[in-house]
Amino acid sequence: MYREPLVEDEAWSNFESGLNNEKSKNVYTRNINEFMRYFDLHSYDELINTPVKDIQEMLKTWIKSHKDAGLKGNTINVKLSAVELLLDMNEIVWARKKIRKMVPRSDHEKGGKRPITTDEIQMLLKATNDFRMIAIIHFLASTGGRPAVLTDPPLKFKHLYKMSDDVYAVKIYDESAEGYWAFLTNEASNALDAYIRTRKLNGEHIDEESYLFATKQNARTRKNGFLSQQSVYKTLNTLYKKSGIIREKNGNRFDLAITYGFRKRFNGVLKMENSVNSNIAEKLMAHKRGLDGVYLQPTREECFKEFVKATPQLTVNPTERQKAELEEKQKKIDQLEAATQENSNLKNKLDSQEDRIGKLEKMLFESNFHPLSKSS
Question: Residue 1: is its pLDDT beyond 60?
Answer without folding.
Answer: no
